[in-house]
Write a structure and sequence with these properties.
The chain is α/β, with parallel strands linked by helices. The chain has a single domain, classed as Transcription Regulator spoIIAA, CATH 3.30.750. Helix content is 38%, strand content 31%. The protein contains three helices and five strands. The chain has a five-stranded mixed beta sheet, covered by helices on one side. Strand 2, helix 1 and strand 3 form a beta-alpha-beta unit. Helix 1 packs parallel to helix 2. The relative contact order is 0.18. It comes from Nocardioides humilatus. It holds the Pfam family STAS_2. This is STAS domain-containing protein.
């Protein structure tokens, strides 16, 4: 798992699963603490695989952000991720960024 900060955005790439959750958790909480823009974006565009444990880590972080008056937005979540979010009812913890419609 590689994690890069780009302003208020954390760009994740690689496999986001039980093996990388602690690394992502630490990066997300550090980013939330250092962010003063009111929102952070988690970019999953380059994530190859994601499992339920990883999504739960993001859901808990999203609740933490809301409690502190911030919000967390997911970008680049593929249909499989969105389907998993709906099936597990974790979708209620996230704002999903709409993809731009290309011409």
């Amino acid at each position: 798992m590689q994690i890069m900060a780009d302003g208020p955005t954390l760009v994740l790439s690689g496999d986001f699963d039980v093996r990388s959750t602690s690394q992502v958790r630490n990066a997300v909480y550090d980013h939330l603490r250092s962010n003063d823009e009111g929102a952070i974006t988690i970019d999953l565009t380059e994530v190859d695989t994601v499992d339920l444990t990883a999504l739960k880590v993001l859901a808990v972080a999203s609740r933490f952000a809301l409690r502190d008056g911030q919000r967390m937005v997911l970008r680049g979540s593929c249909p499989a991720v969105r389907r998993m979010l709906h099936l597990t009812h974790l979708i209620r913890f996230f704002e999903i960024e709409r993809e731009a419609i290309s011409a």
